[in-house]
Specification:
By secondary structure, this protein is α/β, with parallel strands linked by helices. It has 3 helices and 8 strands, in the order βαββββαβββα. Strands 1-4-3-2 form a 4-stranded mixed β-sheet, covered by helices on one side. Strands 5-8-7-6 form a 4-stranded mixed β-sheet.
Length: 121
Amino acid sequence: MLKFDHLAIPVTRWTASRDWYVAILGLAVEFEVPDGNTVALQDEHDFTLFLVEGAVPSTPSAFALYFQVSDVRKSYHSLSERGVSFIHSPQKVSWGFGAELPDPDGYAIRLWNERSMKSEG
């Protein structure tokens, strides 16, 4: 049995991206490698996202990171009230039902929850 537990993505500025993923999505810093311009961020289920300073794809929005939340609508309203800009509010889209926001480099961050995906997606 395989378990997917790490993903590395290139970012323009690892410190700015680190701060965004921690403040907006609530990921925790697992460790940093300042000399390597890298940070490892972890979710509450021990999945690690490495942010490595490097060349970002020319169309970063073509890449999506999906984050399951307890309630898409509540997460959307909470983040919107904090001034976070969204690409779209919770709605039915090609991948199901959820909300989408851009990270600092333009990667698509998609928020979804199982209940809404089943009933509205």
